[in-house]
Amino acid sequence: MGRHPETEQRIREAAFRALVKHGYADLSIKDIGEELGQNPSLIYHYFDSKDDLLLSMLDVFVEIFLDQRTEKPITDAQAELREFVGQILHPKPAQVEQAMFSPPSDIETAISRIFVELWAHATWDTDFRRKTTMVEDRLRDTVTRILRAGIELEQFRPVDPELTADHILFLLKQGIHTGTTTNRDAAVDRVQTIVDGIITDISRESNSSH
After folding, report:
1. Taken in order 96, 98, 99, 105, is the CA torsion positive or negative?
2. Are the C-beta atoms of 127 and 52 separated by less than 8 Å?
């Protein structure tokens, strides 16, 4: 039996949707098979275990948020950074559909739940921790690249790009985590307002007007 990339991708997406419904602890290969509409044995042809599949699924997360930006030239760093932050905090269906055949209906809720579930599991699973570290490194590199471009274009003040990227990512992660795990429904929007303020503060155009 051959391996088909499209089938492998659909299995990842079924795992994505099933994880949102069941959570990590209660999720089974049977649940993923039901979401896929196939016998669970098909999944084992592509993945060794539930964890193997979920680790692979994080590659979809990377594709949604990062792969489409890798080679994109930056001409307006402020707009680029605001757009990136907005896509992380409020992912749009059109954005996700470029990387998935059948995304969940509520994209924002689905992605935030997956973030909390898998990052929590990484607390005690070294394989997941390596993968989440890779994802966060890619996110940090993307923000750092935008900041460096803005400094080179003289659109941003000469701040420390790595430290500023860390600051922004800490805020984004906290906003998503708080919005998902508490009744503070405005947490994500509040973080977006805070980060918008940081971007305004480091922008030369804003500072020259003071």
Report:
1. positive
2. no
